[in-house]
Structures are given as C-alpha cells and as structure tokens.
Amino acid sequence: MLLEFKTKNYKSFSEEADLIMMAVPKQRGLDYSLCREKIKGKEIRGLSSSVLYGSNASGKTNIIGAMDVLRSLVLRGNIRNTEEQMMPNPAAANLELIPNNQDAEGKPVEFMIEFTEGGYRIRYGLIVYVGAFLEADAKRRVLQETLTVNGDMVFDRNDHLKVGTFKSISDHVQNNVDDNLRDIAERGLNPEELFLVNGFRIIYSGSFAKLIIDWFSNKFMIICRADSMQLIKRFSDPQKATVYIEKTANDAAKIFGINSNAVGYVVADGESETKLCSIFKGLKNKKNVAIAAEVFESYGTIRFITIFPLVIKALLTGAALIVDEFDASIHPMALNSIINVFHNDDINVKHAQLIFNTHNPIFLNSNIFRRDEIKFIERDEDTNNSILYTLSDFGTSGDKGVRQHEDYMKNYFAGRYGAIKDIDFTPIFEELLAREVTE
Q1: Looking at the domain assignment, is residue 434 inside a domain?
Q2: What is the C-alpha R_g of the chain?
Q3: What's the confidence (pLDDT) of residue 255?
Q4: How many structural domains is the chain composed of?
Q5: DSSP letters of 217-263?
Q6: Mean pLDDT over residues 395-418, rounded?
Q7: C-alpha to C-alpha distance for 55 and 358, rounded to whole angstroms
Q8: Which of 183, 278, 326, 342 has its CA 20 to 30 A from that of 31?
C-alpha cells in the first residue's frame, strides 16, 4: 500500500511536492473507502484513491512522471541513461530531462517513497545529482540513499555507508556478514549505482531487497500517456494463444459497449506483435473473423479495454495503479464505477489504490471522494514552480474553510481552491479579424 511520495527539483516542482496517501486525522466521511493495515500493533489508514486537478501544464503529469522515474531507477539499479528509448516517459530513460529547467546551478533531484509490503512499513529515499537541465555529460552520482523499515534505519548511504542493526528485518539478513564484507560493501560503492539493488542485495539481504524490488515491479503500476499500444505491449502475453480472449475484461467490455461479439488479442502466424482485435462469430462462412479493433471500435472503447486489465491486476494483487489522464475518452459513469470498486472494502480486500489526474469536475463531489483524496496542482506563472496541496488543507472553518457537504465543483470554478486558469482566446481572433480588414 502506497503511503507517501515526495519529490523535489523534478521538472516543474522546484520545491518539495508531497503526495500523501494516508488519511488525515479526524477526517470524516466515506470511511469505507479506507485501507486499514496493522504494522507492529499500530493501525495505518491509507487512502484507496486520489484524484489530481489542475490546469493544463500545471504539473499533474509531472508528479506521475516523477514516480515513474523512481520506479525505473530502482528496477535498473543505476542512474545512467537506459538504451530503451521507446519508453512512454522520456525522462525515465534520459535523466538529463528531469531537473527543473529554471535551475542553472544543477541542484540535486530528490525522491522519497513510503509503502507497506509483507507486514513492513518501508521508507526509501534517493537524492541524485544528474547536472542541470539538458546537461547530458554531467558526472552523475548518488548523493544520499536511505532505507528505513518499521522506523528503524537499515542503511544510510552518503559520503560514507552507515548500516543499522537490521532489527526489523532480522529474518531476512544473512548471519555471516563480517567486517570484511562491510568494508567491501563501502569500498565497492559505485557513485552511479543504487546500494539497495547492488551492495545491500548481494551482501546483506537478497530476500528483503527482492521484496522491495518486486513491489516496485508489480505493485507500483504507473502508466504515463496511457495509449492503447503501450498497454497492449506491456501487459498482454502473445504466447498464450493465437487468439486470446480474457473473459473478465471481455465481460466488462460488453457492459461498456462494443460493436462486435468479443474483443481479444491476436497473434498472426509468423509474427510476435500482439494486436487488439474485434472478434465476429458465426458469419456466413461460419468462421470467426478478427478485425483490428481500431478499425471497428471507438477510441474510448479501445482505451477502456486496454486499461481494464490493469484494474483487475491491481485489485488481485493489492497494487497502486497510477494513471495519467485515466478518464480520457472514457465516459465518467464507467470511471465512477471503477472508483466505486476501489472504495468497496468487500471487493478491494487487498488494499489496491487508484490515483489519476483529470480535468472532469464531476468527481469534485463529497459523495465520491473524501476531502483528503482530492488533490490540486497549481503552477505559478512568474516562477513556473508547481505546488501540490489537498482539499483538506483548507480546513473546515474560517473564510477559506471547506465544509463536508459544500458544493466542491461550484467552489472550484469560482476559484476558491486555485489550480484553475482563466482562458480567453477572444483577443487572438479579434486581432486575426482586424488584420484581415487592414489587409
């Protein structure tokens, strides 16, 4: 369960941005949507969802991109660029793209994530120097890397390596780690490599490092620019069958609305490329016919079909599903139904979470989201710095207070929460018409 994510000096977030997925104390309403978990006898109340609002170019995509970059770094174990250039988030492959572009000094980029897994409360922090924006030849290095489990320091790596007592993870630690191996661990620190994935995993605890890495790989599901081709390539399995129809996703697609008998993944003879197709059964020749879905189905239908398996996977594994513009081309009633599933503690028994950004104001409703689940991102026009805050930050009293059953949508359009921009294209067209008259 994701509890918190922080970043600093990442793209438009020159100052620290803190995405909190823990319930605000004394916050009332929609308690059934909370994910409760006990660790060391203390109950943690996590949010099952969060929705991010803000104007275009405010930084909504950037906060999701920052999570994607951290995930990518942990999975490859270093802060070097990757040769995989077809990644949906270019900044995850080319790290010279991640620093704030207003900073000419090359300040460090910071990440921190806290989550629960396997009965542990894990906090991992990473501060890296990758140069200034677009400085591709900067000498990169990890400035600080920390791992804390259940409140106990496991390691703190900066100029030197400090190793804790491993009290919280004693069942995972190798018993034969002597001073010589500790010296090797410290002297072997590569400034461009993560200690978690390399030294700690090899010398101290392969099993606990695997627990963390597996969470990043399987339960930190981040979808940037959620187009259909990306999702098909990432989550389909062309080896299952020549024509593969996943029943649950297909049943959901029929409820959503399709123009064929079924939808499935097809692999043509001699090809490895998976294609989403509309399947027609019982035609005149009594053979099934597969037609590329993009030819026959609407874009909204295709997008829903390719995203829905992620929802299934998140619910079955207890993953955090973070999607950029989840609702693009999808009817809000369909998305609202998915939100309700995440909020249903009889179904969401493994504490899956859904985080997405949107421009659709329909979700600004106290009957859909708690106040601490509604986030805003605003970008200052003078400094270009983005800030992240929550509706619950306004409190419930005073001139700026927001009470439980106020009309959130009305208040948002009235500018009470910020994160909205007045847009008027009229002067552009007036000038255009004036030029035509004079010419």
Answers
A1: no
A2: 24
A3: 80
A4: 2
A5: IIIEEEESS--HHHHHHHH--TTS-SEE--HHHHHHHHHH--SSSEE
A6: 76
A7: 9
A8: 326
**Residue 169 in contact with residue 208, Cβ under 8 Å?**
yes
Do residues 85 and 163 both lie within one domain?
yes
Look at residue 429 and tell me if it is in a domain. Answer: no
Query: What is the mean pLDDT of the segment spanning 174-188?
Result: 66
- Domain membership of residue 397 as a residue range: 1-225+324-422
Which amino acid would we find at residue 52? L
How far is 150 from 59, CA to CA, in rounded Å?
32
Asked which of 295, 317, 339 is the last residue of a domain, the reply is 317
Do 265 and 200 share a structural domain?
Answer: no
**pTM greater than 0.85:** yes
Domain membership flag for residue 32? yes
Whether 232 and 219 share a structural domain: no
CATH code of the domain containing 362: 3.40.50
Residue 77 lies in a domain: yes
Tell me the pLDDT tens digit for each residue of 34-54.
Answer: 999 999 899 999 999 999 999
207 and 259 belong to one structural domain = no
CB of 328 closer than 8 Å to CB of 228:
no
Long-range contact pairs involving 148-156 (C-beta distance under 8 Å, separation at least 24): 148/122, 148/123, 148/124, 149/120, 149/121, 149/122, 149/123, 149/208, 150/39, 150/40, 150/120, 150/121, 151/121, 154/200, 155/195, 155/200, 155/204
Q: Quick one: pLDDT band at residue 238, thresholds 50, 70, 90? A: very low
The verdict on 99 and 198 lying in the same domain is yes
Encoding tokens for residue 97?
Answer: 């793209």
**CA 117, 118, 120, 125 torsion: positive or negative?**
negative
User: Which among 112, 149, 113, 116 is positioned nearest to 44, based on CA atoms?
Assistant: 116
Question: Which of the listed residues 317, 346, 381 is the one where a domain comes to its end?
Answer: 317
Please tell me the distance from the alpha carbon of residue 357 to that of residue 63, in angstroms, as a whole number.
Answer: 10
Cα-based distances in Å from 385 to 4, 13, 165, 302, 392: 21, 6, 40, 35, 22
Average pLDDT score, the chain = 85
As a whole-number percent, the residues of the chain with pLDDT over 70 amount to: 86
Beta strands in 16-98 (DSSP E): 17-20, 34-39, 42-47, 49-53
